[in-house]
Amino acid sequence: MTLVSPTLRDEITANMRAAKARMWVRIKGGNRELTHYIAEVVLPVLTIGAYVILYKTLGLPPSLGAAVIIGGAMIAFWTNILWNMSAQWFWEKEMGNLEMYMVAPVSRMSVLLGMAMGGAINTSLRATGIILLGVFVFQVPFQVHDLLVAGLVFLLTVISLYGLGMVFASLYMLYGREAWHTNMLLQEPVFFLSGSYFPTIYVSVIPVWLQVTATLIPMTVGLDAIRRVTIQGQGLMAVWPHILALIAFIAILIPVARMALNYMENLGKREGRLTLRWQ
User: Fold this and answer.
1) Is the pLDDT of residue 152 over 70?
2) What is the pTM of this model?
């Protein structure tokens, strides 16, 4: 006796194949041009390197430069979520592909899952390049005593971030250039609130209400935990509150993304807003 009915098994298989196909397209499309990879790794290092040089000039500890390198690597994920995840349905509508996704016999969440997996793999390669350049060019120190905890924190951070990206993608489905403007609005404030360019030891100078607001962003919590594990050499006992917070983000964001996607899809079908007027 099988625990899963053939119909359900076929449905799960179809959705997993759709996610794999969408992931493969994103991986293949994002890495076929070597010049794009170089631009997305080398150019961000120039900005990050300016902060590292500034900290060295001020005579601050080298570990602060390492904090900036980690922050720059995580910025790559936030940028990918805004422009290659959140606004994806907007781009698909612009190109006339959105209706094909809507009539496909798979869940739209499987398409978003494929986008998330492909984007996470591509961005991980670029983030690794940024960290390696930071280590070998700027000689910033890292000390990782527990690779398992470091990997767990990183994985939970990425999943929670792409969960937030799924929520944004669902909300952006019916919007036009407002999606573009919202992405521009969310980019720099999150860089500041998450502490991407400054070490967390200076967070005490930020007002308490702003610190509380910053903790509502998964990147803030994940970035602080990653810095604790990779720079300060701390272990599970130091970051377990961060891990619980990231799990809570995932448990909340993924269901919210599904509900938002279903609501916006049904609303768009009723109002005829899933295609552009001239298509």
Assistant:
1) yes
2) 0.86
